[in-house]
Amino acid sequence: MDAILLQILNGLDKGSAYALIALGLTLIFGTLGVVNFAHGALFMIGAFCAVTLQRLLNLSHEVIDESQTDFLGNPLKVKVPYLQDWFGESTGAAIQDWSVPLAILLAIPVMLVVGYVMERGLIKHFYKRPHADQILVTFGLAIVLQEIVKFYYGANPIQTPAPEALKGVAEVLPGVVYPIWRIVYFCFAAAIIAGVFAFLQFTTFGMVVRAGMADRETVGLLGIDIDKRFTFMFGLAASVAGLAGVMYGPINAPNYHMGMDFLVLSFVVVVVGGMGSLPGAVLAGFLLGILESFASTTWATTTLPGINQIIIYLVAIIILLTRPRGLMGRKGVMED
User: Fold this and answer.
1) What is the pLDDT of residues 126-161, one digit of tens each?
2) What rounded mean pLDDT belongs to the chain?
3) Is 328 domain-assigned?
4) Are residues 187 and 206 in the same domain?
5) Does residue 48 sit in the same domain as residue 78?
């Protein structure tokens, strides 16, 4: 039972990333009808927001420390972070230690701006174009963003450690321990997902957006500028992906190709959950994460070598053959 619980926790951990990215993808597809293959790049940009803030907080200057000398007896020059000059040694060190959670404050406005520029500058020109054209242009954009990040940050992964207080493991059940930050990530993902659903369900803005997703023309005839609301939803979807990337950094060190690593799997999650279905995207994300976790066990990989690499795609094939609209997709979607 302990081993089963650990695999479920592992699945919820990875499923949280799948669910958050798939949620953003579904928001964009449901509102704008756009297949956005640049969404994985938004996840990557979020992760590098944490990297950028970490570097900014670590900026330092050299001072002469009379208490330390070299082998000739000369005082040594040491680097002192500016934060410690401004806020004191303990407070400055604490701010540096919590750089990843603090990066959320940087990522939200950055991702909103990136989403707005992407939608207004490029995506809006492809609303009425075939999905194949949308895939090609957004995939090309993803490659461009990936290469820009590679140019400025390098090709090697960059560590963004979790705060010291959230490192180590916690006892989930008697005799069962699990990394604290992974638990934090799952709780963070659950809060973001709940927040998005609450926004769509209980606010006037969200209700108009849901109405626009169901019947865009009728909402427009009521005098509501639904396009502006959908542009905001694109920015919201970009923010969700970016926040997922920020908090995922301590689990998997950010690198320039991390967006591509999650992109295809997230699209599979969307298809399994049902194109345009927000609950389906979240449910499929967690279910496929758990399934992938169990498929990665020693017993599974020994019995069926490589099953952990293809299990998600096998499930997608079965779903498409038996229920093309996905687990929770609307009837008629992808069933023509």
Assistant:
1) 887 888 888 889 989 999 999 999 999 998 999 999
2) 86
3) no
4) yes
5) no
**C-alpha distance from residue 305 to each of 252, 288, 295, 320 (Å):** 24, 19, 10, 24
Any residues with CB less than 8 A from the CB of 286 and at least 6 apart, and which? Answer: 11, 12, 15, 16, 18, 19
The residue type found at 46 is G
Same domain membership, residue 209 and residue 81 = no
Q: How far is 214 from 11, CA to CA, in rounded Å?
A: 32
- CATH code (residue 191): 1.10.3470
Q: Specify the pLDDT at position 334.
A: 52
Q: Residue type at 97?
A: D
User: Which has the closest alpha carbon to 226: 20, 23, 33?
Assistant: 33
> What residues make up the domain containing 31?
2-54+99-322
> Which residue intervals of the chain are DSSP H helices?
2-32, 39-57, 82-87, 89-97, 99-121, 131-153, 180-202, 204-214, 216-221, 226-248, 258-273, 278-295, 298-303, 307-322
Render pLDDT for 145-204 as a digit per residue (tens, 0 to 9). 999 999 999 989 999 999 999 988 888 877 778 899 999 999 999 999 999 999 988 888
Same domain membership, residue 170 and residue 87: no
Residues 106 and 73 occupy one common structural domain: no
If asked whether residues 80 and 170 sit together in one domain, one would say no
Asked if residue 333 is part of any domain, the answer here is: no
Please tell me the distance from the alpha carbon of residue 46 to that of residue 243, in angstroms, as a whole number.
6
66 and 21 in a common domain: no
The residue type of 221 is L
Q: What does the buried/exposed string (b/e) look like for 290-299 if buried means 16 or more CB atoms within 10 Å of the residue's CB? A: bbbbbbbbee
- Round to whole Å and give the CA distance between 2 and 214: 45
Which residue would you say has higher pLDDT here, 238 or 85? 238
Same domain, 111 and 259: yes
Is 35 a member of any domain? yes
Among 119, 146, 134, which Cα is nearest to 256's?
Answer: 146
